[in-house]
Amino acid sequence: MTKIGRSQLRFEDDRFLRGQGQYTDDIRQQDDATLVFVRSPHAAAKIVKIDLDEAKAIDGVIAIFGWDEMRAGNASSFKPRAKFPGPDNGAMRIPPFTPLADGFVRYCGEPILGIIAIDKASADLALEAVSILFETSVAVIDVVNALSNGAACVWDIYPDNRCFHFEKGDSHKVKEENANAAHIIKHQLTISRVTAAALEPRAIRASFDNASGKYRLEVGTQTPNRIRPDLAMALGIDPDTIEIIAQDCGGSFGMKNTAFPEYAVGLWAARQYGLSLCWRASRLDSFLGDTHAREQIADVKLGLNEAGMFLGLDVQITANLGAHIGPSTIHPVVSNIGGIIGVYNIPASHVRVEGVFSNTQNVSPYRGAGRPEATYIIERVIDIAAEELGFDKVELRRRNMIQPAQMPFNTGLVFTYDSGNFPRLLDTALDAADWTGFGCRQKASKLRGRLRGFGIANPIEIAGGPELKPHSEFARITVSPEGNVALVSGSSDSGQGHATVFAQILSSKLGLDPSSVSLIAGDTREAPNGTGTFGSRTVAAAGTSIVKCAESLIKTMQSSAADALNSTIDEISFEDGYYRVQKSNRSITFIDLVRERSTPISAEYDGSADNATFPNGCHICEVEIDPTTGRVEVMTYLVVDDVGTVINPKLLKGQITGGVAQGLGQALMEQVVYDPSNGQLVSASFMDYAMPRATELPPVQVISQPIPTSSNPLGVKGAGEAGTVGALAAVMNAVCDALHSAGAAPIDMPATPESVWSALKAAAHKKA
Length: 768
Known about the structure:
By secondary structure, the protein is an alpha+beta fold. The strands form eight sheets. A seven-stranded mixed beta sheet has the order 3-5-1-13-10-11-12, sandwiched between helices. It is globular and about 90 Å long. Helix 11 (371-389) runs parallel beside helix 20 (722-741), helix 15 (498-510) packs parallel to helix 16 and helix 19 packs across helix 20 (722-741). It is built from 21 helices and 30 strands. The longest helix has 20 residues, at 649-668.
């Protein structure tokens, strides 16, 4: 048995290490056609004329089509899952989002035409032969320009480029509290645009079965059931006619959890032309066509009294949504703003979010989906307050922290935290990071000509939500007389280790051999319902359904156990896989009872946990800066986490370390950049989009101090995004602390050598 709480190497890794993974591009059949896309070279233009004569004449070309053909075939637009008030107090502005461009292009890389050919070579030749005449117009790339007077319009019907506004909190109370403040800290924070850059590019295999009337999409995703209605909406069909099958998925991080134009086009074309076809993004396609994330400007105002107690927090966020509103575009911008309160007792708070259109790719969830931004805002402004007012940044946090005795704690801004001991995590982290010895390390760095900075962040996030009404998850467990266990789950894996963790849960609950458990996931034919994997929800949501199924199976076999032990049901208890007779040494295992049957037993559950959870922690980062080059080196990184019950410590550390790497990447180097003059994507390859390597990240020390939650039967809180949620703030706080020691002003992410060097030079010039 491999129980909950024990480290276990992933059962699924053997086949991956042997090259036996089944990714989407591995399932291509010999007679499958190839689909490629003609993409816009412009960020804003009218399509004047398309000449396809030369392209259609190329051997092997089957079809070339655009939006006119799709519209004639009943295709429609994607729709957002969430809606908020419009900027004029009317409805949210939702422009059409057609899978192929409808006469105009609004971002560089927007798909215009689909080309189907017998092979990739023919398709690429046709791609080069297509001739399109454009009438270009002025592109607007960033929110500052988009909201300026006389700005170009992304959509003519929305001349101010505004999409929605969203407010939470009590602005009147904030004004009252801050009117009595001894200090008001104001600062503007710019959060950069990034992309997921998954190891496996997006890919599909699309087909249509005339006999059953079923579309089939084989695709890498964590949410097969959630993308099905999105695609049905865009195709004008019934969701039940679409089957989604997710094979192995080489990284998603939330980006692949939405329905993309290429998916809808592939399904439409499979039926229209009566063939199975495949599409795989090139890395250029990925940079152009994958959704982006995070970009926003936050104007923060924090009031404090003389003693440094927080009074009122006001945050005005302007978010760059891109040109289109996809199914998940709005979610990360607004759904997790409650995290802006952090782990602090702030009497009054107010947040306003304004969504803005631009001639860029649309945004969608990416690891953390708004949580890293929220943590970054509160943790950066605390450091800025400490620097400006002369407070010790640790003490300033400590005196404002929510105390364990205050739980459950209503923050006054969306969330009510159910459990946690934030001061203990802080103290543990400071001790483990040797906070008292930092001054000596800083002096040693100075002797070597380096600047050393200490960064701290206390992230908290909602997981497995929404709060009070968490999404449900599907599970079915079937146990055969041979001892084989089939687990069907609505949660689909993209590298997290679901098979291992689920087997550990079943091993603990039913006493099963983990190797006997086979996981079937990512297939809407097997799991007709299910929400999927995102938002650090899987173990809380899917785990709850698995436990409920296990409990049902235990109850199913109680009568057989009583017969086998010559007892009554009332005298039977179950623990560690054994039915036992109370006050006796007689027992029998669950699996032995099942082996005595002639038929399998099965149970299924489609429900939710009792509530959302709030994983939290403390991140500490130390960096050194070489002032001659501006290069930042991360010296140490420490995480003390409370993710509730830890199922597998080894996998937990891997999840947190991976998340830290992604947060560190955004803080120090990653950034999607468009040319402001014409909207061209400048960072369109790994030559231009910097990614963290092993040399950029030291070993991450992870210390767990779990406080189980009562919101689900396992007591888990979620961990998949914990590393990223804390890393943005911890790394940037460390960088800005090092800069502050040299008299330099704080900078925004990414802290590239150029921006760090420039800040130091500006400080030196000011001193001179």
